[in-house]
Amino acid sequence: MSVEVERKFVCNADTLKTLEEIGVCLGQRQFCDQYFDTPKFDLTLKDMWLRKRKGCWELKCPTTADKAEETSGEQSRAAAMCSRYKEITNLPEIQLRVKEVIKDVCEDSETETSPSQEEESWMSRNNLVCFAEFTTVRKSFTLEEEGVQVDLDEADFGFHVGEIEVLLPEGGDMQSALNKIQRTAGKLGLTGDKRVEGKMHAYLRSNCPEHFARLLSEHIL
């Protein structure tokens, strides 16, 4: 399991030019994301994001802030610009985490099933339905000296966003990751002290207003 520490930003022509000068381009790829939850939003109301990308399941769960990073002044502001999520890609562990949250599970009788049938059965038992689906074209850069990846995303619903990302092993040095992101933001000339919305935020606001309102009221978004 890893922890994703990320700061989103608005990429303009100057930012892109700087990124192309100081970063190494890793290429461009396209992928489709499907996000799943119950009709009552059991997962997302706990800030848990279950998605399927390229046939693989992923679950992003909130991680508690490290006390060491709860400092005042500039460091605190830099930390507030970043999100932190545990990324789980092991399907049995994902299923266990989902089961802990969703109490209304319909147990199936024990029968021989294929992997695809088992997946459908798991989704059905937990009443999981797809609430968001979109395709992203991503161009990635690395700043090797910082151990940072920068992604420029264009979603098929007309939304663009940049992401500065550091992946940590669970229990890794969070303050070091935040410092790397802050230095990279400085090199890219990023300003402002408010978080930039991501693809999911923008998608829900435009396409799922009831879901979006619930998440806002619970301070998830």
UniProtKB/TrEMBL annotation:
Domain (CYTH) ranges: 2-206
Top-level taxon in the UniProt lineage: Eukaryota
InterPro entries attached to this UniProt entry: CYTH-like_dom_sf, CYTH_domain, THTPA
UniProt GO BP: thiamine diphosphate metabolic process
GO molecular function, one term: magnesium ion binding
Protein known as: Thiamine-triphosphatase isoform X2
